[in-house]
Amino acid sequence: MPVRSKTRTYKVVNIVFFGLATAAIFGRFAAHVIVGRMQWLNDGNMGVVLALNSVLFATTYKMAFDGLGQDIWKVPFEHITSMLQFFWICEIVYFNLIGFIKIAFLLFFLQIFPDKRFRATIWGVIILNIASMIAFTFAVAFICTPVSFMWASLDGKHQGHCGNNNALAFSHAGVSIVLDLVTLALPIGQIWNLQLKTKKKIGVLLMFSVGAFVTVVSILRLRALVSFARTENITWDYLEAALWSVIEVNVGIICACMPSIRLGLVHLFPTILGSTNQSISKTPLGGRVKGASSRPDAIAVQTNLRVSHARKPHDSDQGSFVQLVEINGYEDSTKTN
């Protein structure tokens, strides 16, 4: 039987996507430094994402060296044992990483939308994400008794038992997709209530829908997990699910960093990327305030939501592009001049 291997493909995809996601995170941090504003809660969350993604990259790369992407009968027994051990670590890291990425999107919504009820809803979804992370982390960490039986069961020399890891993976994927859909649906009502023309509202909604790609990848990963559940050639057939996992988390990170990166670019290149800004927000008295144009890095006292759209000459709406720009951080945000 000819030797087949997709290990090299997996390594290349892993390196490329991890590199892009890491660059996006540092670009986000740099943008906040450039505009003189640090958002400790949001940036701290993204720091956790960076740490977890680095661990995931290291462990999955080790799995590739151990034989991921090759037929199991071509992989030395000790390498299979090592790969199963790192697979257990990867599951724990992945369950937490995907949760913190979702929280990054939700914290971004907190920076943009001032409505108190809506913000309370966001905090509720954040709590659901945290609860999901804790529950699934404990479930996978102690799925086998003793824990080491997860990777030591193949030699027949150890005693223990394990729960249904496939059922756990399916459950997490299902819950994750539902939380993705909830997160995507959250800003629709807020955006539709903006004082904008319908086509501009649709433009803003399309900007927010970038995160839908991550949900699509999550569904593709679930399909790969279903195929993996029926296989005995685990080192070969797990590769597809592993690839989709890498793409899912890293694309999610990039999408979460895009608004901040644009904010930094507008600050650096105002003549190229500058725009005419219209601000809409609620005042303490419950009224709505519209403001004139302002710098993209400004922090307003009463303005929490800014809708920015580039205009062609002669104030034409045709071909304009709508974009939300975060202008208010949390109470622990800082700004320097």
Automatic annotation (TrEMBL):
Segments crossing the lipid bilayer: 12-35, 85-110, 122-149, 169-192, 204-222, 242-261
| Annotated ranges, domain Rhodopsin | 28-263
Subcellular location(s) per record: Membrane
Q: Which Pfam families match?
A: Fung_rhodopsin
Instruction: Kindly state which keywords UniProt assigns to this record, in alphabetical order.
Output: Membrane, Transmembrane, Transmembrane helix
Where does this protein chiefly localize?
membrane
**Coiled-coil stretches:** none
Top-rank taxon, per record = Eukaryota
Question: What's its membrane topology?
Answer: Multi-pass membrane protein
Q: Which GO terms describe its cellular component?
A: membrane
InterPro entries per UniProt = Rhodopsin_dom_fungi, SAT4-like
- Family (UniProt): Belongs to the SAT4 family.
Q: Can you say what this protein is called? A: Rhodopsin domain-containing protein
Q: Which organism is it from?
A: Alternaria tenuissima
